[in-house]
Amino acid sequence: MVSLALTLGLAGDLLRRDPDRVAVLLEEARSIARSALDDLRAVMHSIHPPVLADRGLGDAVRALVLVTIAVPLAGRADEPPRPRPYRARDRPAATGSAGHP
């Protein structure tokens, strides 16, 4: 995308002085844009595979996983983790090593 912006900027600068060169730059910009869109489609396809839209999250994850592992969870899985309050006794372990080479 940066290359596209630079190419279009150069084409704009040359518009009055060298129209033939501008035509070449515009074709180059078109090619760069097509390539960027292809790359973006590939990335979006990997982020949002069709199986996710067609069959939902559970099937999409199962399609990516080679092994199924059952893990029992203690407590409620839908609750966010509780924050742990900072304790003064935790600090020396982190800062005490700074004084030792």
Automatic annotation (TrEMBL):
It holds the Pfam family HisKA_3. It comes from the Bacteria. Residues 1-52 form the Signal transduction histidine kinase subgroup 3 dimerisation and phosphoacceptor domain. Residues 75-101 are annotated as: Disordered. The keyword Kinase applies. Residues 76-92 have a biased composition (Basic and acidic residues). InterPro entries: Sig_transdc_His_kin_sub3_dim/P. Keywords: Kinase, Transferase. This is Histidine kinase. The keyword Transferase applies. One of its GO terms (molecular function) is kinase activity.
